[in-house]
Known about the structure:
The chain is an alpha+beta fold. The chain has helices spanning 134-153, 177-199, 217-230, 247-253, 292-311, 327-342, 370-387, and strands at residues 2-9, 12-19, 22-28, 37-46, 51-57, 60-65, 89-96, 105-107, 111-113, 117-121, 126-128, 161-165, 207-209, 237-240, 258-260, 266-271, 276-281, 315-320, 348-353, 359-363.
Amino acid sequence: MAEIIISKYMNTPVVTAFIDGKLEYLSFVRESKLNNIYVGRVDHIVKNIDAAFIKYHEDEIGYLSLKGINENCVLNRKLEGSSLKCGDMVVVQMSAEPVKTKKPKFTTNISVSGKYTAVTLGKKGVGASLKLNDDIRKKLVEDVRDLFNDLVHSMSMIGDAGLIIRTSACDLDDAHIKEEVLKDAKVNLIKIQDMLKEGNTRTCGTLLDSSNNKDSLESNIDNTKAFLRSRYITDYKVIEDSGIHGIRSKIDELRQKKVWLKSGAYLIIEQLESFNAIDVNTGKAINGKNNIIEKVNLEAAEEIIRQIRLRNLTGMILIDFINMKEKDKNETLISKVVSLARLEQVHTAFIDITGLGIMELTRNKNDKTLKEILEDVENSVDNSKHQC
């Protein structure tokens, strides 16, 4: 049984998904500048870190790496192999929001998403979501590749562009899937081209597009539905919170470092500046029980992926599972983690097992962590009290 529950946490709307009574997904409805597209101006260049600092709104400055600048996004002159310089006008997209003292990050690889596709400037190739059936994914990519490339080449302002076919394409009828995917891709390409044209007539700080951020209740509900689809769940209810699920307390639990497992084992989760560390401990699990270590590790793997998703941990994630000497048991554990990671909407990849037996994962940065979001929510509540 699955439910999408619309609730509030400290007066901030939150959308959650419960599967068989267990919290599996949450998303805060909040103002966000992530993925917004602006006309920016190069304020200054810092050569020793190979970066430009971009003025994108009044006195607000953001970071832009000078590596791989898309020349089609430079508005005031032809780049032609040279680098950016002070005063250049550039179309940029926010790829990471500001956090505490860190400035926001920008990219010129502008990305626009539609219902069935995502198009990104400066990329090449056609791919499809790993959530799609392997046969469908391969056929779709082959069917669409040449036609998409023809579309890109027909738009002189675009340059190179890559296409990703989204999971939602699996909802389309087989007879119309190629047609609908290409139609959606064309809409995205035209949208990018129109923004580049508009950028030439706008001043620094102009917001060209904000449709890709997650600041509406409807978009959060849509993302939650997409999460359930990635679990092959299509039968669910969307309801208002009645209080019986204890959503406030469940979110507060996600602030805790210690997470207990049903077996009596527990996890310790540490969010550090440069990486995330997760330690698996036997705790109250019965040491003499057959295969207890393997069972605890497999149980921990499921909970770890769930905690990573709910806390939105990104970047490098190091996991210290309980040591198992048998090679086949370690391979089973790795296979379990890889299969769980493949279901995730945010790209999560198994990297390796270090010489000290630490498992390395990476997860793409898609938004602030839950910890950072909760700090923002609390600050907004404090500010509203002071204003009163």
